[in-house]
Amino acid sequence: MTHLVVVGASLAGLRAVEAVRRDGFDGEVTLVGAEEHLPYDRPPLSKEYLAAEECPDPRYREEETFAGDLDVELLLGTPASALDTAARTVTVGDRTVSYDGLVIATGAHARTLPGTEHLEGVHTVRTLDDAIALRAALRGGARRLTVVGAGFIGSEVAAVGRKLGLEVTILEALETPLARAVGERMGRALTHLHRRHGTEVRTGVAVEEVLSADGRVTGVRLGDGTEVDTDVLVVGIGARPATDWLEGSGLTIDDGVVADETLAAADGVYVAGDVARWPNALFSDVAGGTMRLEHWTSAADQGGRAARHAVDPAAAKPYETVPYFWSDWYDGRVQFVGIAPDDGDEQIEVVAGDDAQGGPFTAIYRAGDRIVGALAVDMPAEVMKYRRLIGARKTWGDALELAEQRRAQRAAKAQQAAQQAGEQRGEGA
Amino acid sequence: MRINVDWDRCTGMGMCESLAPDVFEVDDDGSLILHTEEISADQEAEVREAVAACPTEALSLEGPIDA
Questions:
Q1: What phi, psi does A382 have (nearest 5°)?
Q2: Which CATH number fits domain B2-62: 3.40.50.2300, 3.90.550.10, 3.40.50.10710, 3.30.70.20?
Q3: Which of B15, B30, B52 shows the shortest C-beta gap to A324?
């Protein structure tokens, strides 16, 4: 192995080049990125980056780090346009780059509403340039924000809008937001969080037409004819894996690049991050088939794994993981670990707090006799304890036992706090 | 070997706790509790995983490993 090429210069790509250098790989390493920017931290772009008075530098590393410590050749600003797995080459602009091992980490593109791409005031949130534009729009005197899509990105932007004092409306096509990600009941619970903070959520509505005047968005017309006026329209309807450039490459493309359990998509070709679809063996007994994750944690993890496998295929091992994502809404945090089985609410048990008004609460998810997922709203101490159980394939009974232990611990803590408060009052008297 | 926590960056995400629960724990208010600062040889592998898994890159390691 003499030349590792990594296509995609976001988190997975960065972790790919860092992992092999940390292991002592001394061949050539090239990192190809479609954007001009050095790899940067994406999660804050829909959160504090939009809300903070001063925006922090989101770049993970300085340019000197790539040239120096990492000894990585950067090809930024031009997307890869073709892959030839027989010749082992990647086309980048007018260059043909040969590889011995390849990591595909091209991520995903934000989905847009057709015909609105050039309207002023219409935004998506995926790239740093998107966030810079939206930040200016939200802070530039806008009064009303409308978000299409009540997913995690849309919800985070809505929360920022409220923080900045805007009137915020979320329009969601489904009857229950996030039903696929966290299940129906928990989707309803999360919707309460919006309403509690003054965000209007309209579910089961279709966006019929985006209204504009002089090239600028003015509102949307819904399926029932109602019009919603707005100054800024954010489209948060998901992402599409960036696989167009792989057409004709011979790789299997099916909502992502399909790989085996070691993340191999072809001989010498491995995948990582949002573009990767692979069988996660941890859940093969309860949820067959492959999965594709759009989470920070899996991108970071898969980036390193894919690159190690690419430089030493003989040592490739199956990759399994307990998915984790978080989302910051208003002043709170939503955390989810594992998977949400899609066969109904009877598989979910609230083990702490109360979901009726949107939390704080913790809920756990069952499939077969296993615990397979956990959701926490504003209970940061809970969810990671369940992540360990999920990763160790523990039973539902084990999970309920942990829930009972945690209840007792919280009660003891509350009692202790009450006692201390009582003593303080006693001393004061 | 010692763990450094950049307390300005840490937001209590908890990945560290899920990978190395003897070392890290997130408290009820979301703050990180460090059960130990010195890492023994048998904890090194999982602590390295925790450092790599921190979404805010708040963790780092320094110094030699104790025998």
A1: -95, -45
A2: 3.30.70.20
A3: B15
